[in-house]
Amino acid sequence: MPVKKLFNRATKILLSTDTIVLVAIAMLGPFYTIFVERIGGNLFGASLTLAVFAIAAGVTTLFCRRYTDRVKESELVVVFGYTLMGLCFVLYIFINSLVTLFLVQILIGIAVAIYAPASDALHSKHLNNCRAGKIWGAGKAMDYFSMAVGAVIGSLIVTQLGFEVLFILMAAFCFASAAYIYFLPRKVL
Length: 189
What we know:
By secondary structure, this protein is mainly α. The protein is built from seven helices and no strands. It has a single domain, classed as MFS general substrate transporter like domains (Growth Hormone, Chain: A, Up-down Bundle). The protein has helices at 9-28, 32-38, 43-68, 74-91, 98-125, 132-161, 163-183.
């Protein structure tokens, strides 16, 4: 009797693109406060910008969740969210004050709120119900591994090449994930 694969093609694609975006996000994590200090902020300012991000993401998610199931091609919503996030990472290059950082953090919160429910809906659509725990568990493990890899890559880039190169690479990861999904045949996801 043939062994059933844990991941179908759609699940592999979604896990891969989500992982690439999470690596991009994690690349800044360990250095975020240092970046905030370079633009004139402090630890409290960094905390406030993260709070603003979380509030923007939470409020926007409440709005976006209503439309996730109504959208015919959820993968295009994911593409839009990844692309918006990539653009926000490019904007980091031009941030010179806490005010502009707050604005970019709000946009990143909106980007996450746009792509996350649509991505989760796509994952659920392609889930093999009898193995849901294994699939979600593998996905969560990938999240943690992505954060580890992102932190290490980010440290190498910031220490050797600086923040601007880091932001460009973060954006490139998001754009690559968006482009990959966009150019897939629609029947795949």
